[in-house]
Amino acid sequence: MMFFQRYRTAIVVTLLAILCLVVISFSVRHPERTGVLRQIVLECAAPVESLLGRPIRAAEKAWRRYLFLFGLEAEVGRLRRQNASLTRQLVQSQEGYLESLRLQKLMDLKAHDGYRGTVARVTGHVRSATARTLVIDRGSAHGIKPGQAVIVAEGVVGRVTEASWHAARVLLIVDESSNVDALLQPSRVQGILQGRGGRGCQLKYVGKMAPVRAGDAVVTSGMADVFPKGLLLGVVRGVERTTAMFQKIDVAPAADFSRLEEVLVLTGR
Amino acid sequence: MLFYLTVPFLAFLLVVFQQGFLNLVFFQQLSVEVSLLLAIYAGFRMDLVRGAVLSVLMGFFIDCLTGAITGLYMTAYALVFLLSALVSARVYVKQGSLIMAYVIVCTLLEGLLVVGLTELIHGVELENRLRVFVLQALVLGILSPAVFPVFDRVRSFLQLDEP
After folding, report:
1. Which residues make beta-bridge pairs with A116?
2. Contact call for B75 and A48, based on CB within 8 A
3. Which of B13, B50, B64 to mutate to test the interface with A (most CBs of A within 10 A)?
4. What's the N-to-C CA distance of chain A in angstroms?
5. Longest alpha-carbon distance in chain B
6. Which range (A122-131, A241-250, B1-10) has the least confidence?
7. What's the pLDDT at B26?
8. What are the chain A neighbours of B71 within 8 Å (beta carbons)?
9. Domain A116-269: what homologous superfamily?
10. Residues on chain A touching B116 (C-beta within 8 angstroms)
11. Which residues of chain B make contact with A27, given a CB cutoff of 8 A?
12. How remote is the C-alpha of A108 from its chain's centroid?
């Protein structure tokens, strides 16, 4: 015992050296052998390691998911911007396409009737208690003069009442001060189409014996030389026969004034 | 006797925790060998036989869990422990900066030993692995002044010094 106490350090160092050398030598000589102790350690460590690693793996997974979501947020932002840009482009393209269709219709109309015309864009609607007019972006600089007819593919819109250099006012056929020489297409009976504001138009001075039916087309007669002959003004909506000399004929205008964007001003032959 | 009964389990748990948990914390890029700190601590503060047993056990467990040649880390830990015991007999190591410097030196020594022995036995070149040990040495060096008092508390709590 005294010997151990006296040479304790030397004995421990020697034992340690021998142990290490033996273990390492054995391990190097027989690398294919897994010692029993090593197997036991592995067997015990696996479940403990798995248990310890679980929260870390969960945290790692959450972190990776967070990073993924972070990236996804940026991606969603980019796609939203792209979507907005493409939607804008699509709307612009559709607008351009529809505009070209409308202009094509107007150009066809001009060519068909042999009239010279100027296409104008509607820049304003005036719907006061006393007037129903439009403002267009073409004026005397483009050959627009008061009295000229304004039409669209669907029918007559009205006539120019005043024109500045680069703008003009158009009196709609529904305005109560508007009077247009008209005739009923099936019966060729003539009359005057007068505006009634929001209620459409009324065909006046048609005798009570004249055959008029709902659905009959009302066209320009070409008498006053303002509108070319045969342009559609509207369709008979209803007829009221009274004891008076003339019938009360209610006419629905052909053009939809609330949706006008471009019009054709007939500037001459 | 209590020491010899409990220390294998504690050493085992420490090494498993170190290999399983700490390595994952550092995304398996860096091995934070708290067990090496414990071997150094054992050299400074513990009885020679007990420290040697603890170091050898921890080295063996690391050999088993890392898949290294059996005896590789065992030898490295035993050497680090003996060196620490030798140093503690000559120098009173209590200052944080001194502990840090010593831990860095020991970690680098362990790295050199592990790489050197592996190269010698397997005949492969592992010089590029040395930089991992440099980083590990720095991390352990920084951690050591905080970890040593924890070891003190654990030792007194478990009364491992009782004969």
Report:
1. A268
2. no
3. B64
4. 137
5. 46
6. A122-131
7. 65
8. 20, 23-27
9. Rod shape-determining protein MreC, domain 1 (2.40.10.340)
10. none
11. 69-71
12. 27
Chain A (33-72) residues lying within 8 Å, Cβ to Cβ, of chain B: 35, 37-38, 41-42, 44-45, 48-50, 52-53, 56-57, 60
Sign of the dihedral through C-alpha B29, B118, B64, B79: negative
The DSSP code sequence of B102-140 is: HHHHHHHHHHHHHHHHHHHHH----GGGHHHHHHHHHHH
Per-residue model confidence as pLDDT tens digits over A143-180: 898 889 999 888 899 999 888 888 888 999 998 888 99
Distance in angstroms (rounded) separating the CA atoms of residues B136 and B140: 6
Give the residues across from B116 on adjacent strands: none
CA gap B160, B6 in Å, rounded: 9
- Closest in A25, A28, A53 to B20, CB measured: A53
Write out residues 26-65 of B within 8 Å (CB-CB) of A. Answer: 27, 48-49, 52, 56, 60-61, 63-65
Determine contact, residues A262/A99, Cβ cutoff 8 Å. yes
Q: How many residues does chain A have?
A: 269
The structural domains of chain B, with segments of one domain joined by +, span: 2-23+33-158
pTM above 0.80, yes or no: no
Chain-chain contact of B65 with A8 (C-beta, under 8 angstroms): no
